Amino acid sequence: MRLTGIIVDEILHGADGTDIRCGVVGEIGCSWPMTASERRVLQAAAHAQAQIGCPIIIHPGRHSDAPFQIVRILQEAGADVSKTVMSHLDRSIFDTKKLLEFAKLGCYLEYDLFGTEFIYYQLEPDIDMPSDNDRIARIRMLVNEGYEDRILMAHDVHTKNRLMKYGGHGYSHILKNIVPKMLVRGISQERIDKILIENPKRWLTFK
Length: 207
What we know:
Blueprint: H1 2-12, E1 25-29, H2 36-52, E2 56-59, H3 66-76, E3 84-86, H4 96-103, E4 108-111, H5 132-144, E5 151-153, H6 173-184, H7 189-204
Helix pairs in contact: 1-2, 2-3
């Protein structure tokens, strides 16, 4: 597949005619329902990962079944799910039983909308965006269920109003505000270090 060759070349040699090599594949955006072109991109990323062991990160469609569908497509195409991040789980899977079912599939579970709290979610009005306290509670539940090695955290800062200059939390929000609250909620510093340091390092390391 030509797309697979492009991905591999941009990792091994450089992107867009430069010698700057990509370190991850993604964030691969997927819709719900998924389009044919999105499926082909997932398959190409899986083929590339099978060749060179690169990390992959996925933006799932806004539906609780989307992460499951994506993992199935990746697996069928030969991907290593243990080197794959499913991002935005904050707004994707709310049911605890379903989340634990998804966690068994073995990919990284990313809660990456820390600092994003609002009443109305314009991209999917049916979704009630969780608060940071809700996110911490979810992470604590996953830790208690034995998934501390598969959890990642981030801010998904992508607009100016999220920056401190414009009144937002900025890039220090997790370290300044969330980590202290995690400690209060009984998540140990050792487990926090695993989530913030060891897990990203393991994911980003090529196999």
